[in-house]
Amino acid sequence: MINPLDIQLKNIHNKLQQLLKQFQSVQKENSQLKKELDKVKLENDQKTTQIESLQQKLDAVQVGVGNWSESERKELGKRIDIYLKEIEKCLSLLNAE
User: Which of 38, 82, 61, 7 is nearest to 30 (CA)?
Assistant: First the structure.
């Protein structure tokens, strides 16, 4: 005859084994999530640094252009247009080959 206490112990043992498997699975997932979080934090830091650098460059350009007269700005615009036309000519020559 099977002892009821033995059955209960076996059930407890089985449940404990299931809990241990679940715990290991959760630990593994937690470890993976921590690695992913570290990666995202690093990427975020890099993007923040890049944004700060671009903001500094933008500020420098705005300060520089802000002090220019209207005629200087128009002259710069004309020069940029000339450069763009030259670039377009070069690209069309390259595409023709």
Answer: 38
